[in-house]
Records
---
Amino acid sequence: MPSVVQRFAAPRSKVAAFTYDLSTATGSQAVTGVGFKPRAIIFMGAVSSGVGAWGMVGNDLADGAVSSLVVDTFYPSGDAIIAVTVSGSLQQAVVASYDADGFTLTWTKTGAPTGTATLYALCFE
C-alpha cells in the first residue's frame, strides 16, 4: 500500500511587542500591526521590577483560553492575563476581540498597581 504524505502550510505568525502602564484606569488597549486576525496568541511578559511568565489564548476555543498569564506571580485565572505588583494590587486583562490587524485587550484595575508591564504576543493566523 503506498504511503500518503500530506503537506500542510505552516501557520503565519508574528510577534507583537507592547507595554501597559499598570497605574492606568480600567479600559481597553488595541494592539495592532499584526497583519492578520489571530486565531491563537501566546503571551509572554514581565512587570518592570519582576519575573516574567507566559500564557496562551485562542479565539476558536470553547472557553477562549488554554492557560493564564500572570506577571510576577503565576496562579490559575481562567482566560485572564494578570499583572500583579503588590498584594491586592493588579491589572487583569482578557482578550476582548480578535481584530483584522491584531487584538483588543480589556484591562481591569484592582487596588493601586504601579510599574510597566512589557508584553510580547506571539500571534498565529
Note: DSSP finds no helices and nine strands in the chain.
---
Amino acid sequence: MGYRTAPDGWWQEFVRAVPARTGKLAVTRLDGSPHVAPVWVDLDGDDIVFMTSAATIKGKSILRDGRVALCFDDERPPFAFLAVTGLASVSTDPDELLHWGTRIGGRYMGADRADEYGRRNAVPPEMVVRVRVTDVVAKVDVAGY
C-alpha cells in the first residue's frame, strides 16, 4: 500500500543524484553464498560503471560469473529505492581505468580530488566494471505521503 512504480527514466536520475548515492553490489561467493558490498558508481548511457579490484570477493565473482545486482535507496521520507540486475563486463585498459577512476572519484569526493582518486585507482589489479542493466525494480514514495 502506498507504493508507486517509478516513471520511465527515473532510475537513471536516481543513480545520478547529488549527493552521490552509494550502490550496494550483490554477487555470489564461490560456494554460492551471497556477498554484498558498497560501490561508488557512475552511468555511461544506461550502463552502470564502477571499479573494483580483481583480488576482492566482488572482483573474483564478477570474473567467474558476470551476473550482478545493485541496490540504491533514498533513506529520507517518503523514501525510494532502486534495484537492478544485469550482466557485468570488465576492462583493465589503463586509459579506461584512469578515465573512470577520475570520473567516479570526482562524483563522490569532489572535483578538487578527482585526479587524486583517478590516479590512485588506475592501477592493477583494479578493473572497470560495466553493468548492462537487464531488469529494474524501482519504487518512489514508499511511505505513501
Note: Strands lie at 4-5, 23-28, 34-39, 41-44, 47-53, 67-74, 80-91, 126-140.
---
Amino acid sequence: MEEEKSDINISPMIDMVFILLIFFIVTTVFVDEQGIEADRPQPGASNPDKDKAPITVHVSANGQIFFDGQEIQIGNIRSNVADKLRDNKVPVIIEVEDKVTSGRMVTVIDEARIGGADKVLVTPSEARGKK
C-alpha cells in the first residue's frame, strides 16, 4: 500500500490574516484623550506680583477644604474667591494632598474659576495636620 502524501497549503490562511489585520487597522478609531488644563508653578519661577499674596485653597486627604487657613464648605469657595479678587487679580493656588480624589480637586478648581479666578495653579501638598 502506498501512502498518499498530503501537504497543507497555508497561503490562504496567511492571506486571511493580512486581510483581517488591514480591516482592523482601517476601522480603528483614534481618539485624543481629553483632560483638564492645570497651570502648575514652575520651580524657581519669579512672581511679578511679589507684593500681592496669592489666594490659597488647601484640600486635605480626607476632603476638608481650607481657605486661607480656615475650614470652609465647598459651596463657599466661589464667594470667598470673588471677595478676595475684588481688590486685585491674583492667582489662586490649590494645594492638594496625595489621597484627594480627582473629582474633588476638579470641583474645587471649577468653584475657583466660577468665583472669578483667571489663573488657577494646582500644586501637591504635604499633610498639615489640620483638623
Note: The two ends are 93 Å apart (CA to CA).
---
Amino acid sequence: MKPLLRFLGAAAVVFAALLIGFCAAFSHTVKKRERAFRISVNRINSELNAAAAEGHDPQKVILERQADWSARFGADLPQPPEYLPAHSSTAPFFSDSGTDTVVCTVQDASGTLLGFTVYRVPHDTASAVKRLICGVLIFCWAAVCGAALYIHFRILAPFRRLSEYPVRIARLRTAEKLPETENRFFGKYIWGMNMLNDVMKADSRQIAQMESQRQTMLAAIAHGVKTPITNIRLYAEAIGTGLYDRNGPDIREIAGKIAGNADKIEALTAEMIGTAAAAVSAYQPEIEPFYLRELADLVKQEFAAQMQFSRVPFSVTCTANPIVHSDKFGLFRIISQLIGNALKYGDGSGISAAMMRQDDGFCITVRNRGPLLPESELPFVFGSFWRGSNAAETEGSGIGLYVSQKIAAALGGRVFARRLPESGEMEFSVVFDTM
C-alpha cells in the first residue's frame, strides 16, 4: 500500500504544480491582453475627442471608423463603443464597476463635456477558458488516481497473493489447487497454474513408479549377473591353474560355457538398456489441430533469447501454413532436441530450422554448421545410448535422438539424418506423410 500512497502523493504534487503554473501563465496572458485593450481604447477615444473638437458628431464617427479600427487593432479592438450624450434626456443612466468595461469622456475644443463612451472587452471568454482547463486538470488528476487505485486493488493485490504459489508447488508437490476466479486478468493464469500443478503431480507419480521399476530392475540384473560372473571366474581359475589340457576337448567345452555365460550377461545388459531407454522416452501424444506457423512462432519465442545470448545466428522459416492435426508440444520436443544437438555439436556459425508442406504431409528440418559425422555412422545416430565420433569431448547421454525418433514414430513420422558436404552442414529431418 505504501508504494501506491507514494505514487498518489507524487501525482498530486505534479498536477498541483501544473495547475499553479497554468493559473500563473493564464493570469499573465490576461493582464497582457488587458493592457493591449486599454491602449486601443485610449487611441480610439483620442480620435473621438479630436473629431468632436472639429465639430463632428461622435456617434457618426464611431459608425464611420469602425471598419478602420477593426483593421488597425485586430483582436485588441473592443466591442463597438456606445456613446452617451451628456445633455440627452433619453440616454440611460450607466454604471459599471467591472474590469471588462472602460468609460471615457468626450469633450469639444473648449473642454466642454459632450458625453461618455463605453468600451467593453471583445469577448468575455477568458474566465470560461480558465475554468475549463482547471477542470480538465482536476479531472485528469482524479482519473490517474482512480486508475492507480483500480490497478492496485484489481491487479497488484491479487498478484501478490498469487506470487507465492509457484514456490509452493515447487517445494510441495501436493499443494492444493488455486481457487477459480472470475477476475479477467488472472483467470487464465490460475487455470494454467492448476494445469501445471496437475502435470507436476502426474510427473511425480511417474517418477516414483520409474524409481521403483529401476530398483527392481537393478536387483534383478544384479541377481542375474552374479551367477554367470561366478561361473566365468571359476572357469578362468581352472584354466589358469592348468586343470584342463589346452589342446584337449575339455578346454573347448569350457570355452563354450564361458561364451554362454557371456551371452547371458549381454542379454541382461541389453534388457537394462531397453528398459532405461523406454523409461526416458515415455510419451503420450495429445493430438489437436493447429497451424504450422504456430509451431514456428513457438520455436522462435523459446530459442531467440538463448541464441542471442550464445551469439549463434538463428533462423526459423515456415513456407506454408496448413492446419496440422498432431501434438504441437511433442513436435516442439523433437525440434528442441535437434536444436540442442546443433548447439552442442555445431561450430556456432549458424543454426536454421525450416517447416514446410510436403505433398499430403509436412516436413521439419534443422541444419547446423560444424564437424560432419562420417557416412558410416549415420545409420546408428538414433540408437539408444549411442554417441558419434564427434562427441568425445562433449557431455551427453546418447539418448536424445533416440527419444526424438520414438516421439516422431508415435506421431506417425520418421527422422532422417544426412550430411551436406557442399555447405558443411548436418541436416536432421522429421517427415510426416499426413497432416
Note: The longest strand covers residues 361-369.
